[in-house]
Amino acid sequence: MPYPARRPTTGTDHLVSTTPTATLSARLPGPGPEPSPPRPHHMAAALASSRCCCRRPSPPPLQARARRAVARCALAGGEKRNSFSWKECAISVALSVGLISGAPTLGSSAYASPLEPVLPDVSVLISGPPVKDPGALLRYALPIDNKAIREVQKPLEDITDSLKVAGVRALDSVERNVRQASRALDNGRGVILIGLAESKRANGEELLDKLAVGLDELQRIVEDRNRDAVAPKQKELLQYVGIVEEDMVDGFPYEIPEEYSNMPLLKGRATVDMKVKIKDNPNIEDCVFRIVLDGYNAPVTAGNFVDLVERKFYDGMEIQRADGFVVQTGDPEGPAEGFIDPSTGKIRTIPLEIMVDGDKAPVYGETLEELGRYKAQTKLPFNAFGTMAMAREEFDDNSASSQVFWLLKESELTPSNANILDGRYAVFGYVTENEDFLADVKVGDVIESIQVVSGLDNLVNPSYKIVG
Questions:
Q1: Which of 2, 22, 134, 235 could be disulfide-bonded to 384 (CB atoms 3.0-4.6 Å)?
Q2: CA triplet 359, 294, 95: central angle to 5 degrees?
Q3: How far apart are CA 435 and CA 292, in angstroms?
Q4: Pfam families under this entry (predicted)?
């Protein structure tokens, strides 16, 4: 799969040969002739190349999210391979050292202006506990600015952390969360209603009534010390909050750059169901993964994918990479490594598209590293198990086409909120149901179908409707 753009080598390259680490390149290339599964774009995840650092045998398949093995230095690749750059390994090594030991980052004039650090300020990157729930990430990623609803949302989200305390003691923290959310709703209801789109205000008012009733029910659950009933009720209430927040978005919030405005664009969100035939697990045969695609923060990337889904491009395609770190597919039969648009006879590519938290619109065509924005946080981070992103060529930021991958686990170099993937690869959605079963998917398993179940009306410029 693809990688970040090429840069000049520096004196840090000598570190590569001795320090184990890992990095993500969209088509996981790797040098060398080792045999591998069917030629996927090696989107890679740990050190994508046997040149970088050590070689380790592949661990047994990841069975659950709790298993967090160290990322491998040498990942098997397919026939289509690119060599992972020594420079990328050096970056990974430096970041690894900073994350693990707190040592100063390495300096290099090849990377930054005199006023910027060479590598991210780790103390900034890991400034708080990361949000890992895909539903929460999607709620926080909505383009809204309504403090009142966020003050209701946050204590409800915090219940997840409160429940990590053993036994019924957790319920004391949950009770505080519930009371805080109830006060915020009572005090901020008018501001929340004003923030709703005019056409959706009646629906929003009904949802706020349901939310108030649900908070009272959750309070009684806590008073009855019924710990097992807390999480389902929390999920229900957060769904109400999420819908209210979506009803605050009135139209698409920014203009797409002219050079991309005629591409398939998802101006909003869409939900797809991906049905996968899992061959080697007797307990799972057909598994349906629900995926929410976020066109607010990645309209070009998500639009391209929905357009391909409507063309049935992925139906019947095999999983081409599944190594415990990522699951990847999208490399069609034949020599082409992406989708060939029948109307042009050429591979359709899309630009790298990254939305930074606080920005009004995405940045295109360059990684955040190349832009010198080392402290920037992406709106759609690689935090969640099942984060979905585009693979691309190592030395071409704008080479993504049809190959997609799902992140499965964290390693020393991909901790949530402080990883080397954010800002280098375009995230455009999250698996929100059955994501844990991604760990059971193997190379050769077949995607039986991907179907859009909602949000297709948000797709503009659909090329699948054009004959030829």
A1: 134
A2: 60
A3: 12
A4: CYP38_PsbQ-like, Pro_isomerase
pLDDT at position 9: 32
- Angle made by CA atoms 154, 160, 164, in degrees to the nearest 5: 140
Tokens of 329: 């597919």
Which one, of 462, 274, 302, 459, lies nearest residue 380 by Cα? Answer: 302
Q: Which candidate, 207, 427, 108, 393, places its Cα nearest to that of 295?
A: 427
How is the beta sheet containing 404-407 ordered, strand by strand?
A: 321-322, 326-329, 404-407, 387-390, 427-433, 286-294, 269-277, 446-454
For 396-462, give the DSSP string. Answer: -TT-B-S-EEEE----TT--TTS-SSTTTS-EEEEEEESGGGGGG--TT-EEEEEEEEE-GGGEES-
End-to-end Cα spacing for the chain: 28
What's the CA gap between 388 and 427, in Å, rounded?
6
In tens, the pLDDT along 170-200 reads 999 999 999 999 999 999 999 999 999 999 9
Position 13, amino acid: D
Task: Tell me the pLDDT tens digit for each residue of 398-453.
Answer: 999 999 999 998 766 677 777 789 999 999 999 999 999 999 999 999 999 999 99
The answer to whether 214 and 235 have CB atoms below 8 angstroms apart is: no
| 378 bridge partner residues | 356
Residues 58-78 as b or e (16 or more Cβ within 10 Å = b): eeeebeebeeebebbbbbbbb
| DSSP state for residue 86 in the 8-state scheme | H
Bridge-partner residues for 93, per DSSP? none
Calculate the CA 77 to chain-centre distance.
22
pTM metric for this prediction? 0.75
